[in-house]
Amino acid sequence: MSKGEENDLPIMKYKDQIIRCVKNNQITILLGDTGCGKTTMMSQLLYDNSIPCIHPSIITTNPRRIGAESVAERVATLRRCELGKEVGYKVRFDNHTSKETKLYYVTDGILLTEISNDFNLKKYDVLIIDEAHERSINTDFLIAYSSRLITQRKDIKIIISSATINTNQLEEYYKKVGCSVGKVNVIGRPYNVEIKWGEGKPSSTLNQVVDCIISIHCKQEKGDVLVFLPGSEEIEKCCSLLAEKATEIIANYDLIILPLYSALPLYKQKRVFFKTPEYARKIVISTNIAETSITVPGIKYVIDQGLAKVLRSSSGAEGLSLEIISRAEAIQRAGRAGRTSNGICVRLYSEETFNNMKNETTPEITRVNLEGVVLKLKYLNISLDETFFLEDPPIYSVVDALKELYCIKAIDENGHITQLGVMISKIPLPPRAAVVLYYSYLGRSLEIISPLLAMLNQENLFTKSFQMKTYSHDDLISLFITYQLNKKRNDKWLHSIGINPQMMKASEQVSAQLIQMAEECFGYNKTSTIDALRDITLEPPKEIKRSRSHSRHSHHRHYHSSSHSPFSEKEKISYSLTTKRYRDDSKIEVKQKSEEDEVNELLKKFNTKQIIECFYEGYWKNTAKRTSIGQYNIKNTQILGYIHPTSCCCDTQDAEYVFYISLSFTTAIFLRWVNRIDGLMVNNKFLKQTPSDLKKLIGEKLNDKLQKEKQLKVTPVRETAHINVKRMEVKKATSDQISEAKKRYLERKMKKGINPK
């Protein structure tokens, strides 16, 4: 490790205090200013000083994938070792560790999966929960879990690291379970940050953001700019607006504009870490992914719009709400400017607004779906009656989660985890998706289902130009055919039809890993689980070659008999071109397969009916019934929604019942990934698998809490089901303005003697 780099960080002044505190306490709460070196140095300090033993195995968690990866790469560089040897990282579907690894950097979700297999984490000597102030659902779970772990393992050391978390609340929480707790407060940033204020409350207007960037670019000295916006849509529009505006100005540097958000392919995310050329200024426009964990080199200026999109969910209905950030988040954002030099943070809102912000981020556990958390608690045999978390989740959310887990047979009528529940808790997918994988294993249809699960879990597989052809009136079948037809296509082709090539390749890899996981998790229990779930509706596997009649069922039609063929006559002719080849002077005419023929072959080869059956096992509670006015009423709720315009089901008039995979909230509530379902199957599911005795299912204590809330007339979110997404305000330039700007840009380049081509 470079001694110069090590000694320059503020945390090194507290080295002895930290070592002493960790040695003397089971729990250490480390509060440190942004940029003090907590994330990169804490594990190294403990390892180099043999705490709590010689060559300790230390695991550090991070809420985000890019955070875990970038920190591991940075630490490996500091220690001058190969990544994956002494220092490694592990994220979902990507493991860069080995038998030699001692310093592990992982996402909190990965550690939760490890806990499922080893509750006492015998492999590790130190657990560091980093970025605890984010209060993600997984981070809160790990904090709660650590309070139980410490009673089982007196030898392990646990460090909670944060820049803004409420340390008194944490200390009180741990002391309740009899842990010895020490606190270290690391004061000092490597550089100062000057705060500049705007006026009024945060606004979603993008022109204000662009004007601020241009002002810095034209008037301020060299240094890169980091801009915080709420979501990917705003970021992409801001990048476009800024690129247009940049052609109108004269400045000393060129602009390099880089978006940064979680759905962006990883290789594009990592571009923000590249060193900025001398002739340019880098503008990184990011969501709160850049708020913590990662350090973008060269950032001197931060622009904070003061807004973030927050996920809110209940009973399968979830959406993003545009909200004002907390003071803790604002402080984190400002701290990004003082990492490598003195910096400036421009807050596009007033100081009064800042003072009126809530102190901390609202814990995710109070506002999202809790199925995965409740299943994990059941698996670890932790009672829901216990005060487990830092803050108790809403009672309605817990009850809803228990109902959902019962409906997918993960728990029984007494609330006890089933064999199926045990198995799916080990799969790194949401419980409903893991159930789909399980039933595909039983029905021997992993080859069909795993690619769909992989694609549905890729945030950015499709670009905005993607329009799925109606190969079937069911979205999942059309998606499967789209995958099969295009998985071997070249990148240019995939781009042309609106599919991200990197994510398509990633989907193939994830699909293969899901198949392997299914065989490992479900293979040893197949006989017992088939007996336990003998009412399964899946058909037995069929031969690869089927008669034509086997492919005709209610979920798709052959193109030759369908009036809804996605192919025009021109397309059919173009796909039916013939080529002539010669062998031994005899002419052989070989007819190329049309896409229509390929699709029909796929429908014959694969039993695509199983797609609907398997997914309905996991998502049957997402059933909706058509109303007289064309909307769909989500069964057993008051929620009314529309089938999304891009759905293959959108134009069908005969679908009384459908089920969906997710909801989206824009100008209205829309059902996404929609599929038709038979009314008889709907009635059987809701009759057989709806809990008959709620009190028995949730337990007496939870039932008492529920009744008290009902008396207080606390309305659950699922009844109101209104999640507001405020549309951004963008003043678009006219075509004449854009043309004039481009003309001025070219003139400036010519004056400087630069060929714009």
UniProtKB/TrEMBL annotation:
Chain ranges of the Helicase ATP-binding domain: 19-183
Keywords: ATP-binding, Helicase, Hydrolase, Nucleotide-binding
Helicase C-terminal domain segment(s): 208-381
Top-tier EC class: hydrolase
Keyword hit for Nuclease: no
Basic residues: compositionally biased ranges: 547-561
Gene3D superfamilies: 1.20.120.1080, P-loop containing nucleotide triphosphate hydrolases
Region Disordered, residue ranges: 542-570
Organism in which the protein naturally occurs: Entamoeba dispar (strain ATCC PRA-260 / SAW760)
EC number(s) given by UniProt: 3.4.22.44
Family statement drawn from the similarity comment of this UniProt entry: Belongs to the DEAD box helicase family. DEAH subfamily. PRP16 sub-subfamily.
GO molecular function: 3'-5' RNA helicase activity; ATP binding; hydrolase activity; RNA binding
Name used for this protein in its record: ATP-dependent RNA helicase, putative
